[in-house]
Amino acid sequence: MSKKIRLVALMSVLGLFFVTEKLNAQRVVVRTPRTVVTTPRVVYTRPAPSVRVVRTLPARAVVVNYGGLRYSYYNGLYYRYLNGANIVVNPPIGIAIETLPIGYSEVVVGTDIYYFYSGNFYVKDNKQYKIVKAPLNAIVYELPDEAEKLKIDGDIHYQYNETLYKKVKTVGGNAYKVVGEIEE
User: Fold this and answer.
1) Checking DSSP bridges between strand 69-74 and strand 96-97, what pairing results, if any?
2) Is the separation of the CB atoms in 116 and 105 below 8 Å?
3) What is the reported pLDDT for 91?
4) Average pLDDT of adjacent 10-residue blocks, the chain of 184 residues
5) How far is CA 131 from CA 18, 81, 111, 166, in A?
6) 166 belongs to a structural domain
7) Per the domain annotation, does 116 fall within a domain?
8) What's the domain range around 71?
9) Is residue 135 one of the residues assigned to a domain?
10) How many domains does the chain contain in total?
11) Alpha carbon 79 to chain centroid, angstroms
């Protein structure tokens, strides 16, 4: 009888081994859905920058010193002298001029009045006009030729001088609304 008990005991141990092995193989993995939060991304490739070089400045160009740098200004364009040439540059925020360029437009946002020319917004500051950041929700009717077209979350936007515009329809026709700025 002791052989029978040993045989039964051995069979029981082997049976438990196979049963537990089978139980472990039947694990169930429960997957819970994840919440994915996406933020708008600007996806575009920046074309090679175009540099406009002028050999000689217009005779009526005025010198404007700002932030320790010397700029020349004439009719809405700002120049910096570099390596023997005058290069057209975007003006820095805060630089001021005495006269607005011919062809500027007045832009009203809320109760504030801005002046817009060639992608730059100005405000009157005493007897001068100072360049400021583009005011949110400002609507302008034309952008400079250098404005870049880009796609954000499937929508077409335009970027110029770190300002982001979206094309909108107005009573006056197609226009561009300031919707933000791009930080670099």
Assistant:
1) unpaired
2) yes
3) 92
4) 62 57 53 51 52 83 92 92 89 93 93 94 94 93 89 87 90 90 75
5) 81, 20, 18, 21
6) no
7) no
8) 50-89
9) no
10) 1
11) 25
